[in-house]
Amino acid sequence: MCFISSSIYAQSTYYQGATVIDGTDNEPIKNATIIVTDGKISCVGSAKTCQISGQKNVINVEGQYITPGLVDAHVHFNQTGWIDGRPDGIAAPEVYPYEKTSMANLANPERWLKSYLCSGITSVFDVGGPFWTTQLHQKFAHSNDVPNIKAVGPLVTWVTVDAMQLNDEVYTFLPMGSIEEAVASVDKVRQSGSDTVKVWFLTPPEDKRDELDARMYAIGKGVKDSGMKLIVHATTLREAKVAIKAGAKMLVHSVDDKPLDQEFLNLLVTNKVYYVPTLLVHGGWTRGYSSVALNLPLPIDDPNGCVDQETLDNITTPERLSSVKPEWLTGVWAFDRLQSSGMQLSQMNENLLKVHNAGGLIATGTDAGNPLTLHGPSIYAEMEAMQNAGLAAKDIIIYSTKNGAGAMGGSSKFGTIEVGKTADFLVLSEDPLKDIRAFRSVKQIVRGGKLHQQSDLAYRNID
Ligand SMILES: [Zn+2]
């Protein structure tokens, strides 16, 4: 039931006739009406529940499907989708001066934001980057031409990556060389205005594990004491458990080294920790390396023309790296890595099903910005990989909308099509409950109540 005073009819838009899948466990509503008023959903239901009476602004979406806008819960605005954004992978300053790449990202964040909205992604969570990323939310707070944004800022890590520490102002990592240093890094993140601390907890050498655990716990306490939230990159079962015990509310990747055990599943479910599978990012790196090793431009999966020309030019000219490629990067190395990527994916698939079956909170994330994990369209393949792993489309829709909002701390504001939520939703021409590939058929994107035709957001026309 919904009540609407006549005074707001004038500003309302009515989407009429679609099947609405609202991002919750509710059954789809056929031939539904959604009323959008002042950027929010003011009614959703049958034509009888949400009556249209005399107003003009009716959008006919008969025969189409409406879902909440997609949420990519793991991206990096300071990475490009190619190797130029990750000099720690292949260092090639002669071809890709990192400072130039990074400054271009800072100067033009709209480049990626457009790719996201174009692909049907209405909210993005940057889980690690320079301090400037934490200002984007504020900068674009009143724009309905970009997705809703959250960014955590620099990663706290025991690893040093000189190639990515650009200068004193633009850097991506904060140290945790001792307990005191770890706690000071937490404070630095807090001062930047971020409400979330991300720890890049790469698997430590065996003899360092205990002391790094202690620093992880100290970070967890510091985060809790300052009222912030902890999220962690930990892909080994042992470190992932330590992360949750230290207070992590989100694991930004799958555990991929071994099968999840009952202790992990209990920790994850009891502590309501979001588990973001990122099934394909490793394979993207492998394809990127292979492309360079073999001098072979690989096909780009961009069905709706959402990738900008400069990115396409970079990706399709791997030969630019041929004179500077490292010696280890051979065809044989690439084929070995393709095989190991396949093994790793099957472990991640198995673990994803375990988390799902245990009732864990799963949120879709791509790790976009990494080589060949492209800002925007990479979400389609990620959702399809979740489907291939054995998840049902109806669950993947929830994981890619409602749960993404939850992972961003935005459940009360967006992520579902419910009265009072921000009007972020998609019009698809195919049924996503039959096959998650239907998100490739996105035709219209409503962001904060503003209607965009997908083709208007594209960088290129796709016939
Ligand atoms: Zn990442």
Automatic annotation (TrEMBL):
UniProt protein name: Amidohydrolase-related domain-containing protein
InterPro entries for this protein: Amidohydro-rel, Metal-dep_hydrolase_composite, Metal_Hydrolase, Metallo-dep_Hydrolase
A GO MF term: hydrolase activity, acting on carbon-nitrogen (but not peptide) bonds
Annotated Amidohydrolase-related domain residues: 65-450
Gene3D superfamilies, alphabetized: Amidohydrolase, Urease, subunit C, domain 1
UniProt source species: Paraglaciecola arctica BSs20135
Pfam family membership, one: Amidohydro_1
